[in-house]
Amino acid sequence: MTTANLLVELFVEELPPKALQKLGDAFASVLHDQLAAQGLTTAASAVTAYASPRRLAAHISAVLAQAPDKAVSQKLMPVAVGLEADGQPKPALLKKLAALGADASVVPSLQRVHDGKADVLYFASTAQGASLAAGLQKALDEAIAKLPIPKVMTYQLPDGWSSVHFVRPAHGLVALHGADVVPVSALGLQAGNSTQGHRFEATVNPVVLHNADSYAQQLRDQGAVIASFAERRADIVQQLKQAADKVGGGVVAIEDEALLDEVTALVERPNVLICQFEEEFLAVPQECLILTMKANQKYFPLLDAQGKLTHQFLIVSNIAPHDASAVIQGNERVVRPRLADAKFFFDQDRKKTLASRVPQLAKVVYHNQLGTQGERVERVRAIAKAIAVQLFDNLGAQHASLSSHEGQVAEEWLLTCVDNAALLAKTDLVTDMVGEFPELQGTMGAYYALNDGLPDTVAHAIEDHYKPRFAGDQLPRDNVGLVVALADKLETLVGMFGIGNLPTGDRDPFALRRHALGIIRMLVEKALPLELGQLIARAVPVFGDKIQDPAAALQDFFYDRLAVSLREQGYSAQEVDAVLALRPQRLSDVAQRLAAVRAFAALPEAPALAAANKRVGNILKKAETAVQPQVNAALLQEAAEKDLYAALQTIAAQAQQQLQAGDTTAHLQTLAALRVPVDAFFEHVMVNADDVALKNNRLGLLASLHQSMNQVADLARLAG
Fold this sequence. Notes:
This protein is α+β, with helices and mostly antiparallel strands. Strand 19 and strand 20 form a beta hairpin. The chain has 5 domains: 3-65 and 133-221, no CATH class; 70-127, no CATH class; 229-349, no CATH class; 362-570, Hypothetical protein af1432 (Orthogonal Bundle); 595-718, Isoleucyl-tRNA Synthetase, Domain 1, CATH 1.10.730. It contains 26 helices and 20 strands. The longest helix is centred in the middle third of the chain and has 26 residues, at 373-398.
């Protein structure tokens, strides 16, 4: 069966740049999948997606002109319903056959299949394969319908009557199977073999395509368009490097994948040019200049070897004139007012201290149920102070030096810095710079704090209290920043949970999941001696009667987030479930517990002990009253229960010492020696004895066993 390569292109007005790559990939993949579903592709078929600012296209190799016929077996009805006793067809069967294009002559050839209840009639036939024209029409309609269009627009066709709903007005449709046009239509357009090149630099317009395989090369040579998104992106990357090398001095273009994707979606044939601005603007914090160049102008700032901004930058032009000076000067002229605005904002903001801006926060609404930013700041201050005291007390218990006079001074310094940072952390929200560039909140606060003469640690905390802003982001660099970041995120979580504003499956407008993961990362990666339950408990009272106590639900939320994170790190669901079932309060201990559980699970004794532990747990749950882990040795009768009791006195005691020393792995491995006496106990001892005192004593023995074995993890969760 002969095949040829297929090309389909939609030529449209400028597509939304941030969605272009996704649109191109979706168009090509759905087109291929739909053709494959109709049997029009082969095992050798491969799809190549093309996406430029004004086109979506797909090249699919080895496409059939006609799909092969295929055998079809159609279920009709039970034999008793379709046939008389003598085998003659009933009206219901004849009607069904007529709908399938058959008549009574096929009745003798109908297949009979027993479906477990009755004999059923099946009609075997051959379905003609779809033609490429019909199949491609269906595939094209489906591909257009399934495009992930961010916002649909409606426009009128030239006939003046019909309207089309699409991402942008479409002006051309190409469908070539080899060199032949496939007669399909879409969006009021009929397929042809010609497309448009670059608006200004195409040497031929329209570009008449020779065949499906000449598409990319003809567009490049005649149309001055690089149709492939990936090729255009790679070309920009190469040109950026070449331009930076030309500038010299070890400068590099800033790395920003999102900016690179957006610029790739804005140009058809990239041309990177070197521009510059006045060096006096470098007195402005580089974050401001970089942001305005990237966000507003789509430029690539150049950084020196130390990561400092230079006065030169790169632009990606969509034209390549012989003399580029006009393009360069135009872009330099455009960026200058942007930089001047940033300098003006910076100069104006520094005329007022951050402390003088605190009253303004009382006029900024945070949430209609939770009050203003001013009220929020006071809550964060209270939570931060409580965390700082708790942290210092716990650190003092570990380090005797912190109980000295110098330790008291250090505590007072910590508390003072924490309070100042918490008080001023949100004040940059009412500055002109952050009003213009909200992305700079925290960053500008740090600059303004240093300008006010505040200590570096306070400035760092103001910047760092938003961290981690995203997955993989850095954590606050010191304890002051950690405390304020914990307080800020806890305030958000407790407040939102307290008013019932919880995240749903697809909505989390207050980034509560991110906040929870941020707290988890700080507690774990910084090994902070803080307990989760205590942190939440200290945050709840500062809200007064504005909220309902969300402590229980919030703890569950934290452990759910932690479980997801741990599974993503490669721990099994059983391992995670076993450790988190105990709700460990020090999250910094979780990794050690998981390692201990993994080592224990590898022991030959583990399956039996896990099963026994599950059995013990079920027995204790069924007890009429709560069972205390207490044993009266005088009531022990059977040898097996005496042996288990003796083993607990020695093995469990040794394991407890290892646990207190922090060696959780050795603790569990020591407990593995209990397998033999535990197995013997269940084989030879009747727990539910008729004698109540004997029964309760044996339950107490099992409770002691259960308590000893489940201090690191709920080992029953390891049972299959």
